[in-house]
Amino acid sequence: MTVERAILAFAGFMVLLSLVLTYTVHANFVWLTVFVGANLLQSAFSGFCPAAIFMKKVLGLPTEAEKARAA
Q: How high is the mean pLDDT of the chain?
């Protein structure tokens, strides 16, 4: 799995989790969905994603470019 795919999976998981928490725990968990969406939007324009940095440095996941070079 690459960093880019892991980010998509993580964002999808967080959106679904926040919706479940909003429905079952408290309505204010909808703000978690807003936060995830805002992070995805700013990442699309700035290229900065803290989760991607974490996945690359700590988890050691390769980027798509690194995986393509290795193949």
A: 94
